[in-house]
Amino acid sequence: MMIRQTAALAMAFIQSAGVNAETALAPVARSGVCVTNGAVAASPGGVMRIDSPSSRAVVPASDGRVAELRFRFLGPTVGTKPLASGELRRQIGLKLKAQDTCNLVYAMWHIEPDQKVAVSVKRNPGMSTNAACDAHGYVNLRPAAAVEPAPIRQGEWHVLRAELSGASLTVTADGKVAWRGVLPSLADEFDGPAGLRTDNARFDFAFSARAGRQAAAVPCRTGAGD
Predict the structure, then answer these.
(1) Which residues pair with residue 206 across a beta bridge?
(2) pTM, full prediction
(3) Checking DSSP bridges between strand 54-59 and strand 34-37, what pairing results, if any?
(4) How many CA atoms are closer than 13 Å to the CA of 53, on its beta-carbon side?
(5) Parallel, antiparallel, or unpaired: how do β-strands 201-211 and 62-76 relate?
(6) DSSP for residue 21
(7) Are 110 and 197 in contact (CB under 8 A)?
(8) Superfamily of structural domain 2-217
(9) What distance in Å separates the CA atoms of residue 4 and residue 141, rounded to the nearest whole number?
């Protein structure tokens, strides 16, 4: 069942990507998104919507190195879910090399209480579920260069893009470099597709990624995320 479901996700992604699916950034349909926590709904106009306080998803057919989110902040969610630290943060961001919920790279755009782009590596060897790793294993990275993006206001559209070349990561916010730096060697110890994460905020969004060949090895495990 998982293999068939994964194959369907991969086909949906590739069909939406067009002729240059393996080399170019391509739009991802809702059918190509594996939601591991929360809910992602299809909306008119080819966009998707998130209303849940905590949402996590991956695109199994992506290569995990380049991804882009075009999003519109719709305001706070009805309910809230503080981070493990107790902070109530509203944010949206990209996952790269998302082997599972315990081993991946995050590029997050904070909306409240601060406004910045932050990058972290989450590494928990031998663990693959939130029940096992919870909020452990995070390493917050310092950029070689960073510019604070403009505050996000409700109803405005923005674009967050992350591109990993070797160990060098560049994250842009609305076309401007917001974070640039080098990932630590521990990020070489895992691999996986691209994805997205949101906390305590509602969004309309479109997701684009570069196609990869690892879909067959990344089954959609609904409910596996934190």
Answers:
(1) 70
(2) 0.87
(3) antiparallel
(4) 9
(5) antiparallel
(6) T
(7) no
(8) Exo-inulinase; domain 1 (2.60.120.560)
(9) 38
Phi, psi of 166 (to 5 degrees): 65, -125
**Taking Cα atoms as reference points, which of 61, 51, 57, 8 lies closest to residue 36?**
57
Question: Which residue is associated with the tokens 């990561």?
Answer: 169
CA dist., res. 104 & res. 115, Å (int): 22
3-state secondary structure of 44: helix
Rounded to 5 degrees, φ, ψ at 17 are -80, -30
Contact at 8 Å (CB) between 150 and 178?
no
- Cα angle at 137 between 135 and 143, to 5 degrees? 105
* pLDDT, averaged in runs of 10, over the chain (226 residues): 44 43 78 95 92 96 96 96 90 97 97 96 95 95 94 96 97 97 97 97 98 64 67
Task: Enumerate the domain spans of the chain.
Answer: 2-217
Tokens of 179: 């974070």
User: Which two structure tokens, joined as six digits, stand for 2?
Assistant: 């998982």
**CA torsion angle for 198, 174, 87, 122 (degrees, to 10)?**
70
Helix, strand, coil % (nearest 5) of the chain? Answer: 15, 45, 40
